[in-house]
Write a structure and sequence with these properties.
- It is built from four helices and no strands.
- By secondary structure, it is mostly helical.
- The protein folds into two domains: 47 residues; 43 residues.
- Helix 1 runs antiparallel to helix 2 and helix 3 packs antiparallel against helix 4.
- The radius of gyration is 19 Å and the shape is elongated.
- The chain starts with a helix and ends with a helix.
Length: 114
């Protein structure tokens, strides 16, 4: 899809936010529109960027509840990607002073994929 279409979808999202702030759209309508946009935008990003950074996964809490819509996540696949394992090892090293239990758990977990 074209960048023009992505721009149009982003404009639609901004119009919905504006309409909600003025009371023209009810909470349920806005929730539904946000759910639709959350599903469409990653698809648009994928086709526009081809092999660059794009939305590939839908993230939710383990109990199925939605995550904060403003949050940013980056998913790594450890079993097939040695670069992902290096990233987790560096993260574990970085957090060691703050959370040695998590750091050690991550290091042990990564060793299982080598």
């Amino acid at each position: 899809m074209s960048r023009k279409l992505v721009t149009m979808v982003n404009s639609l999202a901004n119009m919905l936010i504006d309409a909600a702030s003025k009371g023209y759209v009810s909470g349920n309508d806005l929730d539904f529109a946000n759910e639709c946009l959350d599903k469409v935008i990653p698809l648009l990003d994928h086709e526009v960027t081809e092999k660059g950074l794009y939305g590939k996964y839908y993230i939710q809490h383990a109990d199925g509840t939605p995550v904060d819509k403003k949050a940013a996540y980056f998913v790594l696949r450890l079993d097939t990607d040695p670069h992902a394992r290096k990233a987790v090892e560096r993260y574990a090293t970085s957090i060691f002073d703050e959370n040695p239990l998590l750091a050690n758990s991550l290091m042990e977990w990564v060793k299982g994929f080598k």
